[in-house]
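Ticket closed. Logging final result for UDP-glucose 6-dehydrogenase.
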Amino acid sequence: MKIAVIGTGYVGLVTGTCLAETGNEVTCVDIVEEKVNKMRNGEMPIYEPGLDILFLRNIKQERLTFTTDLAEAIAPAKVIFLALPTPPGADGAADLSYVLGAAKDIAKLITEYKVIVTKSTVPVGTADKVTAVMKANTDVPFAVVSNPEFLREGVAVEDFMKPDRVVIGTRDEKARQVMGDLYAPYVRQGNPILYMDERSSELTKYAANSFLATKITFMNEIANMCELVGADVDMVRKGVGADARIGKRFLFPGVGYGGSCFPKDVQALSKAAEENKYDFKILNSVMEVNETQKKRLVVKMREYYGEGGLKGKHFALWGLAFKPETDDIREAPALYIIDELLAAGATVTAYDPEGMPNVKKLLGDKIGYATNRYNALEEADALLIVTEWPVFRTPDFDFMKEKLKSPVIFDGRNLYDLDRMKDHGFYYNSIGRKTVA
Ligand code: NAD
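Final structure:
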């Protein structure tokens, strides 16, 4: 099938590449010329494990091409995917200007039936809005499909190639068939393609992300309780996770959720509720708790160093990306922690396996950047762990003690065993567990 994908970010590039991998001919469009030129030369604009192999293979075999020219991409395409940003607007609601703008441009260019698919996360009613914008600009027949994306950055290729489910929201029979054919190779193990109306499909994505954000936030609150009552959140987590109704996954407490999706999607669903005169109380609490949780490590540090005690201190920080295996730093808790520390008069040297170039663009020389995890520790009064990259899991603790000015670790991801940290002689303060002093 001939396909156009508009927008080549984390979702668009993965979608385009993975659709090419099953034999489709895909043209990806982006407005950033430099990015398109890079991709044409086989350079990946993002870090996503495993994507490079598929990306290069499909470019080489001429199933994956890139352009800045929308007309060139959509002319042959049967299906047009919109993988455009939907950032929060000033009021917290999703900004649909990218999606609706593209719909208008596409409408003006099409000369035959096309299936227009919104892959972006969009509020309920967007398919209707896209349809209206298109109808106002063309008489050519088309169908609009809501097909939300559930991939996780870091394991995006696996998630796309073997999704837990595919959600297809359309009431257009022809589009339903096309989408079913397109996705059939990805659900051969028997995972479902769920067909529904556009509105249910649009809400499914927000419901999924908001539920996950709520699950994490609930565990963060349990962790905070654990600290107050002397329980160990690792034990509690295992105890509750063993219940099949709850499940083991997504129960790890930490320094709050971040990334380009959870914060904006929770906010957008809460806003959509408000617009429908519904007070979505849980979501409002989730957002409030997460704001506090992002600064949890700094609160712990203030308690340890005393009032004004952060001033003049130097800290090493491991982990800038909002989660491991990505270079994405959008809404990363590390950025909030760095802000707080700098405002308190401390200095920071960070290390992240993939996130540093993006942070450099944002913060420049406001912080230092280390060439490896150990160099970051030089002259540091303490180490802060913010992202659970595998490389941080089994470091040489004795070497760390040599490098650090004092053997102090604030761990926002509970990477280490408490007894081991005691044996190694660290002060070790983590989330929802006893502090090793
Ligand atoms: P992104 O910011 O990484 O990428 C968007 C891309 O679109 C950029 O390359 C940008 O240059 C390009 N673009 C902007 N305007 C354009 C235009 N008019 N024509 C062509 N290209 C244009 O965004 P993303 O993370 O890929 O997210 C895209 C959508 O998918 C959002 O709605 C997001 O909520 C949703 N989503 C994201 C993820 C994720 O993990 N990142 C997962 C599921 C859903």
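Residues 6-12, 29-32, 83-86, 98, 102, 120-121, 149, 151, 153, 260-261 surround nicotinamide-adenine-dinucleotide (CB under 6 Å). No further action required.
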